[in-house]
Amino acid sequence: MPRYLELIRSGAKTVEGRIRVGKWADVVPGDLFRFFSNEQPPPPAGPAAANPPPTVEPALCVATSVRQYDSFRAMLEGEGLQACLPGCGGVEEGVEVYRGIPGYREREGSDGVVAVGVRVLAGEEARGALEAVQRVG
Fold it and tell me: Which InterPro entries match (predicted)?
């Protein structure tokens, strides 16, 4: 979702919530993530509509913290609504945002939720992290 990617890139969204399966079940602080969106942001209105919509650049992040929860509600209450979903109107709305992601409603109860604190890497720090990952292979 381009909106949440932009919020991560800007530093406003500092916690990424996911179902606790696969790589998300094994995340530890210090892990690197590249967040990207396959969706295009909505096109501008008015005269700017003639120009193609901008693409949202990926965000390279490092995990700063990892906490496990039994539900999205517990995660939003424990991590803070604005850290997880900046601009969201309330916890109930936030729970529905997460449950609206395909498969999340069904898997929340069985697999649980992980909240990963994220910090965006930029400039030399990002280049150094990418080089380190490439050396390890």
Answer: PUA-like_sf (IPR015947)
**Alpha-carbon distances, residue 25 vs 58, 113, 116 (angstroms):** 22, 9, 11
**For residue 134, what pLDDT is reported?**
60
Average pLDDT over residues 23-44: 83
Whose CA is closest to 119, among 75, 61, 34?
A: 61
Of 63, 36, 67, give the one whose Cα is nearest residue 120.
Answer: 63
Span 72-76, average pLDDT: 98
Residues near 17 by beta carbon (within 8 Å), at least 6 away in sequence: 72, 75, 76, 79, 84, 98, 113, 114, 115, 116
Domain covering 13-31+61-136, topology: 2.30.130
Beta strands in 1-137 (DSSP E): 15-19, 32-35, 59-69, 113-120
Predicted model pTM: 0.82
